[in-house]
Design goal:
By secondary structure, the chain is mainly alpha-helical. 70% of the residues lie in helices and 3% in strands.
């Protein structure tokens, strides 16, 4: 003790308190060469640290709190190149973002179990009654719409958006819904593919939407046909076919003019106006 006082060294316990590191961690950092003590008593093996080492100790605590791996902590502390330091931190940020996305997927998977919409042992789709399919179709349709309006979205959210739209359409198929429900599912799938920059999917679902609307006109509302034309115009713009886009845009405008409900007409007009040919 007297020797440490004379040399100004700090015993391991006091150094641990000053840096916020545990004694166990300090011993480990010594073993791996990350933070070696200034002196080790040859008789007792007791470690002592110089006050100047507190800066390194605090830096280690901060980086470990950010879950930077030990080998990268050493590289960051010993690096004198600011660009290399930034590169190492960016690499860790990207890994953390990927892990965060994976954890979000886990949380989302847990929620239906917590809410009682799914069971731990799994529920075969055939066991769902029509009301359950209808509820899921509505919930997923609304979830897809919420994700579409989010800006910006992550790559994982883009995936979730696509899955929600298609899953909504699947449940409406089994809900005993009308042809109008199926047409609107196709319309949403087309819009999602368009939003994600996928012309092939946008065209396919827009064409299916129009087919269903035209084959079941009696079951449709006045906005369904112009909505189908709007989807086709948007998809053709994305595909680079401006002539087809203009044709369907004009058809959409003509049919929109026949919508009697002002609010519904305004919604379709706004959708058509957002298409730039």
């Amino acid at each position: 003790m007297e020797g440490r006082a004379q040399t100004g060294l700090l015993p391991i316990g006091r150094f641990a308190r000053l840096t916020g590191l545990t004694v166990k961690a300090l011993r480990h950092y010594d073993e791996v060469g990350l933070l070696s003590p200034a002196a080790v008593d040859p008789d007792t093996g007791y470690r002592s640290y110089a006050p100047s080492q507190c800066v390194r100790g605090e830096a280690i605590r901060r980086l470990r709190g950010l879950e930077v791996p030990l080998e990268e902590v050493a590289a960051l502390l010993d690096c004198r190149d600011p660009l290399e330091v930034r590169r190492l931190l960016l690499d860790h940020q990207r890994r953390t973002a990927r892990r965060s996305s994976e954890l979000n997927a886990v949380l989302q998977g847990l929620q239906p179990l917590i809410d009682g919409k799914e069971t731990v042992m799994g529920t075969p789709s055939e066991a769902l009654d029509r009301d359950a399919h209808r509820r899921l179709g509505i919930d997923l349709f609304n979830k897809a719409w919420t994700l579409m309006e989010k800006d910006p979205r992550t790559e994982a959210e883009d995936d979730e958006l696509l899955h929600c739209a298609h899953a909504s359409g699947y449940h409406w198929l089994h809900a005993g819904g009308t042809a109008a429900n199926r047409a609107r599912s196709q319309w949403q799938c087309s819009r999602v593919h368009a939003v994600l920059g996928q012309p092939e999917g946008a065209l396919h679902h827009a064409e299916r939407c129009l087919e269903i609307v035209q084959s079941s006109r009696a079951e449709m509302e006045q906005f369904d046909l112009p909505a189908a034309y709007e989807a086709l115009a948007r998809a053709h713009v994305l595909a680079g076919d401006t002539d087809a886009a203009r044709r369907y845009l004009e058809l959409g405008r003509q049919e929109t003019g026949r919508i009697e409900d002002e609010d519904e007409r305004a919604i379709i007009e706004a959708d058509l106006a957002s298409i730039v040919v």
